[in-house]
Amino acid sequence: MNQPLHRFKAEFFKALGHPARLVILEQLRPGERSVQELQIALDMDQSSVSQQLAVLRHKNIVDSRKEGTTVYYRVRDPMIFQLLDVAREIFNNHLIDTQAMLALLGEESLEPANRK
Amino acid sequence: MNQPLHRFKAEFFKALGHPARLVILEQLRPGERSVQELQIALDMDQSSVSQQLAVLRHKNIVDSRKEGTTVYYRVRDPMIFQLLDVAREIFNNHLIDTQAMLALLGEESLEPANRK
DNA sequence: AGCAAATATTTGCATATTTGCATTCTCTCA
DNA sequence: TGAGAGAATGCAAATATGCAAATATTTGCT
Q1: A91 lies in which domain range?
Q2: In chain A, positions 50-89, which contact chain B (CB-CB < 8 Å)?
Q3: What's this model's pTM, rounded to 2 decimal places?
């Protein structure tokens, strides 16, 4: 069993295993984005965005380019988007069945008190 | 930003973020496998395999079927394999560039002493 | 009922990740 | 050169994950 390769792949998927990082990738779909733009889109503070970008950078999923004082990020391989598309299809198909989804949604309806 | 959905997706990717679980999925490519068969293929003890299967089960990635005393697992949505294929392509393309790969391989050459 | 085989779950503990914050680094330009 | 904007890094507390050993469940058999 090619273990190192599987470890490597696992690392890759782990990099996708965070909501913020998924949103970042979605934001990069149309093209480059500066850290600032991402920061606004994600409504997160600068350092958090930077940290998540670092994770993606270390796994070679994104590349950065510095222009003056601002840094632009882009996805290295557009096939990443294809991957996300397949993932989305899987969800739309049936992975989100009632149980799991309700369980997840249940959690957060606890926090904002009651919705009215 | 549809946050719950992104969380959900992140959970999904996290489930794929473990070497053993990736190997399990590869094993399930041709079809059903019993826990025992997986246990042998992965060379892991029973409870570890069962634990990893539990993760995949909870994320609705695999289904199980009990026949007598043995349990057979299968992947719920074949599109999962398509996802793995796209991931493989991404690797073959260029995600595994020298740096990252060497870094990873470097780690493990430390453990088995020296390779001779 | 009582036992054995095949799986699952629980538990305790080590390790890894996440998060918020403070600090540092790096350009640019006056 | 030094002030300020934009990013990155460091760090500590909280949380989550991974792993192995022990214990539970379930099923089939006698």
Answers
A1: 78-116
A2: 58-61, 76-77, 79-80, 82-83, 86-89
A3: 0.84
Over the stretch A90-113, which tens digit does the pLDDT of each residue have?
988 765 555 555 555 554 444 333
Mention every residue, 6+ apart, whose C-beta is less than 8 A from residue B88.
A9
Do A2 and A28 belong to one domain?
A: yes
Are A40 and A2 members of one domain?
A: yes
CA of A48 to C1' of C20 (A): 9
Residues making up chain A, counted from first to last: 116
A55 shares its domain with A82: no
How many CB atoms within 10 Å of residue A65? 11
The tens digit of pLDDT for each residue in B88-98 reads 999 887 655 55
Q: Does the CB of B51 sit below 7 A from strand D?
A: yes
Tokens of B99: 């740096």
